[in-house]
Every structure is written in structure tokens, then in C-alpha cells.
Prior knowledge:
The chain contains 10 helices and 7 strands. Helix 2 packs antiparallel against helix 5 (100-113). The chain is of the alpha/beta class. The chain has helices at residues 2-7, 14-31, 42-54, 81-87, 100-113, 125-128, 149-156, 174-180, 182-187, 229-232; strands at 69-73, 92-97, 118-122, 138-144, 160-170, 190-199, 207-215. A 7-stranded mixed beta sheet has the order 3-2-1-4-5-7-6, with helices on both faces.
Amino acid sequence: MEKIWEENEIKISGAQQKKFEIYFELLMEWNQKVNLTAITEKEEVIRKHFVDSALLAKSPLFSPEPGTEVLDVGTGAGFPGMVLAILFLDCSFTLLDSLKKRINFLQILMEKLELNNVQLFHGRAEDFGRDANFRNRFDFVVSRAVAELPLLLEYGIPFVKENGYFVSYKGKNYNKEIKLSENAFRQLTCQLETVETYSLFGKETEKRVFLFIKNKEKTSSKYPRKAGKPKKNPL
């Protein structure tokens, strides 16, 4: 496992490596009863889930100080939120997902990993985004493999504090999604500030793109719209 991390110039401690071993074992155990991932070969899980999620740690813009609050919208099996929580123990991570079975898995995982910097919530982004306890609160909001950018922005931006960032994990078609998001940028008073591109495993053919989108002011009370509406009619 260590070699795969080294290929991507990500340093992890022995304790962190042990946590990722536990993560993999529990993921495979639960995957037999809950559909958490289609990828089951160990090396591929490390590469395509763990390392891919952790690439954000290489970003100069994502350099959270102790106490920084991070939200993962649509966390699934904990990618990227749980992976980042293992790497940044001094930061606070909130993981949100609409499927209770995934949250149940993450609860067991959190206990086995003895992580004290993670909170889990079951529900939809549209509902939590209107909750005063979550709205415009987080320094960083992250999302990976959830939806196209126009929809993601309405899910994610209402959680971001003023001058905080929504970070979207994207692949090679990101330019198309950015063009489709022009109206969403206007309506949600946010702007694309930086695009960072990384090569996975040293391969130019395998890219991971991070879109850093800055929230310029408190989100209009119109957004997010009621559950289901953003998906039916993206901004």
C-alpha cells in the first residue's frame, strides 16, 4: 500500500496506513450487503478511492488550519470526507449522505478507526442547506462523483461561509461543466477562482481536476430549492 501513496507523493504515517487497511477490510465486508463500491480489488480501491480522495491534500489552497470545518456533500462510502479526516486529524469533518445504510457503515467505520473529528448526518443536501445550523458555516465544502457542476453548486454553495470554498472533484470534461454553470455562478453569487490539475500515478492520461469555487456572500434565501427541484431543473 505504501508504494501506491509514494507514487502520488502523498506521505502517510504508519498509523494512517493501518487505518486505511481497516477501512478497506470493513468496506469489503459491508459491500457484500450494501452497494458501496463497484471496485473491490485492493490495489484499485487504494488507487481509485483512497489516493484519489487524498489528492486534495496536495493542493496549496487546501491547507486547513486546526479547527477548520469541512463538509462532504454526498459522501457515499466516505470519499473523500473520511479519507481527508484520517489525514487531517486537527480539522472537523461533517459527512452528509441521503442513504441511511451508508451512514450506518460510516458510523461503524468511524468507531473502528477511533476518529473523534467526524460527524455523520443522514439527509438531503436541499434540506440541510436550509438549516441555520449548517447554512453558510463551513470553510470548505467538498464533493466527489455526485453530479454535474450546475446541480452540485446548488447543493454545495449554501453550506459555504463567505469567502470559503466549494471544491468539486472533476475529470477531463470539467470545461464543459463550467460553461453549463454560468447561470448557477450568478444566482448563487459564487465564482470559479482556481482550477488545479493533478496526474494520477504519474500518468498524463489519468487526470484529477479540482475546481475551487469561492462563495462571495451569504447565499440568497431562494436556494437551495426544495428537495428534488434542483435535479429536475438545474440552474
